[in-house]
Amino acid sequence: MRTERQRGFSLLEAIVALAILASVGMALFAAMNQSLSMVARAEKVRERESALRNAVAWIQVVNPAQQPRGEHELGDLRLRWTSEPVEPPRDAATGHERAGLYRVGLYKMRLELDRDGQPLAEIELRRVGYEQVREPGVL
Fold first, then answer.
1. Which of 4, 31, 55, 71 has the most CB atoms within 10 Å of its CB?
2. Own/partner pairs for 43-51, CB < 8 Å, 24+ apart?
3. Full-prediction pTM beyond 0.85?
4. Closest by CA position to 74, among listed 50, 48, 54, 45
C-alpha cells in the first residue's frame, strides 16, 4: 500500500482547466468582435449624419424657385438636389392689400449625397423659394 501523497495535476485536471480557459477565451473573443462591429456601425452612422448636416446647411443658400435642380461638391461628397412646388407660387403681400415685389412658393426638395458614386444619404425637406417679379416703386 502506498502512503505517500501525490503532488501536481493529473492529466484529466489539466484538460478540464484548458477546456474552461478555452470557453472563456471564446466568449471574450465573441464579445470583442461584437463591440468592434458596433463601433464600425456607429462610425458609419456618425459619418452619414455629419454629411447630412453639412448638406442641409449648404442648401440654405439655394433658392429652389431659381435653381430647381443641381449638384455641388462638398469635399469628397457630391450633393444633388431636385425641387418641385408643393403648390403654385403666389404674389407676396405687402400688408397694404397690394402685391409685393416677390412671388413666393413652398417647394419640396430632395437631397441625395454620394461618395465615389456610392449613395450615402437621402433626405427630403421643404423650403421657401422666391422670385422678384416687380421693381420697387412700380405697382
1. 55
2. 47/120, 48/120, 48/121, 51/77, 51/113, 51/120, 51/121
3. no
4. 54
67: which 3 cell numbers? Answer: 435653381
Kindly state the average pLDDT of the residues 4-16: 82
Q: Domain residues of the chain, as ranges?
A: 11-132
Residue (of 120, 124, 127) closest to 49 by Cα position: 120
Q: Quote the CA–CA distance of 25 and 35 in Å, as a whole number.
A: 15
> Using one digit for the tens of pLDDT, what is the confidence trace for 34-67?
999 999 999 999 999 999 999 999 999 999 999 9
Q: How many H-runs (helices) and E-runs (strands) does the chain carry?
A: 1, 5
Q: What are residue 86's phi and psi, to 5 degrees?
A: -80, -35
